[in-house]
Structures are given as C-alpha cells and as structure tokens.
C-alpha cells in the first residue's frame, strides 16, 4: 500500500509535510535516521505511520511523561493500538499492560528513559519483538543542549544492545549545529540519514514589545482574544500568581501552573486548559512540555527566557495546527538579571555556567535586535542566508529610522580606548562620566571619550550599547566576566565605511483586536461545529482537539461537505474519524445550511 494511502486512511491527511516521507522511508528500510523539524512540523507521524506497517513493536522513548497519555489517547482514537509505561502507572495496571504488549496487540509503546536503565524492565523489554526505536526530544541527549539529561544518555548503550535488526529514529525541534553533530556521534547516525526541514514556522508571527506596562498589556491583549487559547509565561511563581490574580479580578477565566501548587491543582488547571474550560493559562516554564494542544493561538512571555532554545520551544506551542499564531515577548533589560542570578547560584561547574551565560547573551541580542526576528533565530540554529520573514514586529515596524552613526562611533571608540577589556556596565559609566570610575588606577578620566555622553542617562547609554551588540557592531569575549569587543562591522563604522541606523524608541500598547488572519470561512458555522465537538469531547472525556483540530473544523467550513466522500476529503479526517463522527457533523452542516437558506428567503 502506498504511504500516501496509509497517511490518509489512518491519519486523515492528504499529503506529507516536508521531510516526513523521507524519514519514514529510511525507517522502513531499517536505517538509523534523525529528523530536525520545527515544533508543529509533524515529527510524531514519522514514527506513528511506520508503526502501522512494521511487523513488531515501535518503542518510543520520551522524557515528556505528561505528553504520553495524550499521544496514546490520540492514537487509540484513530484505531492504532498504543499504550505507555512510566512512573504514573500503578503496578496492577502495569502488569496488565505488559501482558497485553507481550501478546503483540500493541503497535506503539511509550516509555520514559529511566525505565530503560531499570534491570527488571530491560530484561522484559529484551524479549519483545521490536522493529523501531524512536527517541523523541533527542536534544536532551547532548551535553551541549539546553536541557541535557544524563539519564537519557545512560539508556543509549542498553538500547543498542537489544536483539534483532531494529531501525532507529531520533527527533528534535531545538538543536543547534553543535547539538546536531553531537547527537549524530552519540547515536551513530550517518550524515546522509539526517533530514533537516528547517526551523522556520511560517504561520508564527514573532513580536517584541519593549517598555510597555506589562500587566496592562497582557490584560488588553487577553481581552481582545477572549475566544482564543493562549499561554502566558512568567519567570517566577509570584509573577504567575500576580498575573493570575490580576486577570481574575478583571473577569478573565484564567488558570495557573507552577511547582508551588499541589499536584492535584496543577493537574486540574492543565485539564481545564486542555478541555477548553478556560482559554488562558499563566505558568512558569514547568508548563507546556507535555502539552499537545493544537489550537493555542498566542504565547506571551512576561519575562525573557534564558536561552533561544527554550524560547523557541515555548513559542512553538502556538499554532501547532498550522493556522496563524502570535508569540510576543514583553522585554525589559532588567529581566536578564534574574537569569544571571540563577546562573550564579546554580550547582553546575564553571564550564556549564559559562555555557548558560553565553546562551543568555544570545537571548539578550535577540531581544534588542532590529533585524528580522525569525531570521535571527534561524541564523542561531545554523540556517544562514535565509530571507526576512515579513511578518515579525521588526519586519512590520513603521517607526521612523534615525541615523545614530555619530553616537555609535563614540561608543565603539570608547570600547577600543578602554582596551576592549571591560563590560557594558563600566563602559556605560565611562561614557556618561561617572565619578566612581574616574581618578583611580585605570585613569579613565584621561580618555577623550570619558563623559562624552554626559547629557545622556545611564539607561539610554546602556540601551545603545545593547543595540550595537545585538546588531553585530560589538561582540563579547564570553567567559565569567564578558568584555565588549569591536567586531568587523564595528570597525567599518569607526572607519566611516558603514552608517548605523536605528528606529526611534516609542512605547506601544496591546492591539485592540487580533492581528492574525486565517483565511475566509463561515465563523458562525465554525462555532456550531466547535459546540458539537465539545459535546463529543465531554462524552468521551477527551480534549476537544483530539476529536478534530481547529484546522479540520475550518476546512469543513470552507469545503461544506455534503456526503461521506466529501467529508473524507477534509484535512484531518480519516476512515476512523468518518465512522465515529461523520454522520453527526454532516447533519450539523446540513442543518446550518438549511437555516441560512430559510433566513435568506425571509429577508428577500
């Protein structure tokens, strides 16, 4: 049977996304392969589809325990037998599942990496007929990654020693070139079996808002998007609680999630969000790793994440259905100090702390850049020479552009005259001419650039230095005490070969309505189908998106199917979904069409 036929019949999709078919074919040939695909790029199909074809069991190893149940429920919903074994499964239930797996009735088994290094479990696993090992979130295998887990690394050798001719598939969405090379070495994956589809999310609009009243911005934004699902990330528990209380006081149905809440409350808040009982949730970064909710339309960051990998992973939770979504970072430079504090207090060695500081520096550059935001991220992940996205806040910024070449030359000159041996803080104080950096053994007061910005504030000067760093005119030495270094671009500015332009600083407020457009469809019919979907979801105790995604409902509203064959042509509708829901949804569409016709006749 053709792979496209299986894709449509089992999963309801007409065509493969980039990279999917190539990876599936490698897996079915019994090879070791790796897929580097963006969040929402359809990584799970790359092992789910082969599992329906291969004779034995597909073993999926994932650190995301909370995501396992969602994946298993989704697979069982479309008629593909799957189960999971992790620390949340009681012993009597575990024994029953293990016997069921032994019988060969299960096609996919999801396990946590810690299970693999358990001797008793490994002995049981060795006796199974395994056709494919899929390693999800593979970036945590690499010590160069942002979320390295040693337990994940320890499982590689035992997995390699399992009997039989087993195919391997490693998948990740957030891996720099260094991490990709490390993973290929650890898993012994040849270059020709590595499929990279790129990290670009062309349905995601990245935005940065600087200098806004953050709580008020969030309230305005949420009020303007009341019918849309969204996540608000904050760095500290108290920030989460404060935003949660503020939104509740302003009549917003909101949830919260952080480690300070009881297990029961966290579970309830997550369920409320998944089942659309609330549309917005405020959380620390502890939330989201196990969330497969496809209809999240926006992600707001109250505080800046510590790494670009973490940031892109978190914003990737918006728009997983492929429809337009927004990711907005509310930025103030002071937010960086919180991360600096945590790095200094961490228990890691000096090399680990240095790595985190370098990643934080890159994140600060992102927050300050005036170049295309998506292009900045793609460059970070090793995708050079990409075009500007045309949809981020920098690409759409219509503020006046002013020439700041003269001020830039003063800053760059000061860095050079200070021997490129000092950081932003001292350089700022020299430029403004502060007494505490004058008349000491360094004799900064003798520099021609001392006090050259005496008419500016420390904040203004610091922001200019951050702008020059973010846009490549200044580099950093790295290390525990990073110093400013003149780059080649900066040298060209000093020599008069290049000018520096900067957008004029202006405060902004949250938009009063959605800036996201997602095509032409009947909104009233969409709401009717959403209500029907919710009825089925409640009867079956499933999140609504597991019945049909928003994208599938909107495709119904565009196609207006009238029979089973037309309904099967809807994106996301396979044979199992047709059997379960086709009759009810076709009837709802027919009733709506009839009511619209009656209304038109009355009007005429």
Describe, in plain words, how this protein is organized in 3D.
- A seven-stranded parallel beta sheet has the order 3-4-2-5-6-1-7, sandwiched between helices. Strands 8-13-12-9-11-10 form a six-stranded parallel beta sheet, with helices on both faces.
- The protein is built from 26 helices and 17 strands.
- By secondary structure, the protein is α/β, with parallel strands linked by helices.
- β3, α5 (91-102) and β4 form a beta-alpha-beta unit.
- The longest helix has 29 residues, at 575-603.
- The model is unreliable at 507-519 (pLDDT under 50).
- α18 (405-417) crosses α21.
- The chain folds into four domains: 3-196, Rossmann fold, CATH 3.40.50; 204-380, Rossmann fold; 401-503, Orthogonal Bundle (Arc Repressor Mutant, subunit A), CATH 1.10.10; 523-603, DNA polymerase, domain 1.
- Its cofactor is Mg(2+); Zn(2+).
- Residues 213-360 form the Helicase C-terminal domain.
- Pfam families: DEAD, Helicase_C, HRDC, RecQ_Zn_bind, RQC.
- Residues 24-193 form the Helicase ATP-binding domain.
- One of its GO terms (molecular function) is DNA binding.
């Amino acid at each position: 049977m053709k792979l496209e036929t299986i894709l449509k019949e089992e999963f309801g999709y007409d065509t493969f996304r980039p990279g999917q078919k190539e990876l599936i074919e490698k897996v079915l040939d019994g090879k070791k392969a790796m897929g580097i695909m963006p969040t929402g790029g359809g990584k799970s199909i790359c092992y789910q589809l082969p599992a329906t074809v291969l004779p034995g069991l597909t073993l999926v190893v994932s650190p995301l325990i909370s995501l396992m149940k969602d994946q298993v429920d989704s697979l069982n919903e479309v008629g593909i037998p799957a189960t999971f074994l992790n620390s949340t499964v009681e012993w009597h239930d575990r024994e029953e599942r293990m016997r069921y797996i032994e019988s060969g009735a299960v096609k996919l088994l999801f396990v946590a990496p810690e299970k693999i290094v358990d001797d008793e479990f490994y002995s049981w696993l060795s006796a199974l007929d395994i056709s494919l090992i899929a390693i999800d979130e593979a970036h945590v295998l690499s010590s160069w990654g942002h979320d390295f887990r040693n337990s994940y690394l320890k499982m590689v050798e035992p997995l390699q020693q399992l009997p039989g001719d087993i195919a391997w598939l490693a998948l990740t969405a957030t891996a720099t070139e260094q991490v990709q090379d490390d993973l290929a070495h650890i898993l012994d994956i040849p270059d020709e079996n590595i499929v990279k589809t790129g990290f670009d999310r062309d349905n995601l609009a990245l935005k940065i808002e600087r200098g806004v009243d953050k709580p008020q911005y969030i309230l305005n934004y949420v009020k303007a998007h009341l019918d849309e699902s969204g996540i608000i990330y904050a760095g500290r528990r108290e920030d989460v609680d404060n935003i949660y209380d503020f939104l509740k006081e302003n009549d917003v149905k909101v949830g919260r999630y952080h480690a300070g809440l009881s297990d029961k409350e966290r579970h309830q808040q997550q369920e409320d969000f998944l089942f659309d009982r609330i549309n917005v949730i405020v959380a620390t970064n502890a939330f989201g790793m196990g969330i497969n909710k496809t209809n999240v339309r926006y992600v707001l960051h109250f505080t800046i994440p510590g790494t670009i990998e973490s940031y892109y992973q978190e914003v990737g939770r918006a728009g997983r259905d492929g429809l337009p979504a927004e990711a907005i970072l509310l930025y103030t430079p002071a937010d960086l100090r919180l991360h600096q504090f945590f790095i200094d207090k961490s228990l890691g060695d000096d090399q680990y702390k240095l790595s985190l500081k370098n990643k934080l520096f890159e994140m600060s550059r992102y927050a300050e850049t005036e170049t295309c935001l998506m292009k900045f991220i793609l460059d970070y992940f090793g995708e050079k020479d990409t075009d500007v996205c045309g949809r981020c806040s920098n690409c759409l910024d219509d503020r006046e552009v002013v020439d700041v070449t003269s001020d830039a030359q003063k800053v760059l000159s000061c860095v050079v005259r200070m021997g490129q041996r000092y950081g932003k803080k001292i350089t700022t104080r020299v430029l403004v001419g502060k007494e505490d950096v004058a008349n000491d053994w360094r004799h900064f007061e003798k520099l021609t650039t001392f006090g050259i910005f005496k008419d500016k504030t420390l904040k203004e000067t610091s922001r200019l230095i951050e702008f020059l760093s973010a846009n490549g005119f200044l580099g950093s030495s790295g290390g525990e005490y990073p110093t400013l270094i003149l780059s080649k671009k900066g040298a060209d500015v000093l020599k008069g070969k290049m000018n520096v332009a900067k957008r004029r600083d202006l405060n902004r407020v949250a938009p009063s309505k959605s800036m996201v457009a997602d095509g032409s469809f009947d909104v009233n019919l969409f709401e009717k189908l959403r209500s029907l979907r919710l009825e089925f979801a409640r009867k079956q105790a499933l999140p609504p998106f597991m019945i049909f995604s928003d994208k599938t409902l909107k495709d119904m509203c565009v196609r207006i199917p009238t029979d089973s064959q037309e309904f099967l042509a809807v994106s996301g509708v396979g044979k199992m979904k047709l059997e379960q829901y086709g009759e009810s949804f076709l009837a709802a569409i027919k009733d709506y069409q009839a009511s619209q016709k009656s209304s038109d006749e009355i009007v005429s």
